[in-house]
């Protein structure tokens, strides 16, 4: 079931967000988060591929996106913009904890992988990654402190 099919209360229970934040989160333009069991998602993914879309697995939810879209493309644009505008020797850092972060982590100079509280380290294959042991915000802080 997609977030667009749920009321604010259902999304709040799933995400832990306050209703005011849920309303902001629902104002999406480029992806649709949803929940489902593995077999249903696998079948849905095949239908999506035929239509030019893909399913990305996040830390807690799946995301329906256009097939040519990924976080890595956006990060590459931002890195180029910063390097062209400010300084071409800037270093980029990316932090991620789920499979939908892989393209973004491949695009940065220093990829930091944080374990997910429910599943541990995501199935991410990135060269020269730094894997921290702490989860969530503690893992992000530890990774940045190490850098």
Rounded to the nearest angstrom, the radius of gyration is: 17 Å
Shape: globular
Q: What string, H for helix and E for strand, traces the elements in order?
A: HHEHEEHEHEEH
Largest sheet: 3 strands, antiparallel
- Coarse structural class: alpha/beta
Number of strands: 6
What is the typical, i.e. mean, pLDDT?
88
Separation of termini? Answer: 40 Å
Structural commentary:
This protein is α/β, with parallel strands linked by helices. The strands form two sheets. The chain has a three-stranded antiparallel β-sheet with strand order 1-3-2, covered by helices on one side. A three-stranded parallel β-sheet has the order 4-5-6. β4, α5 and β5 form a beta-alpha-beta unit.
Features:
alpha/beta, 3-stranded parallel sheet, 3-stranded antiparallel sheet, 147 residues, 6 strands
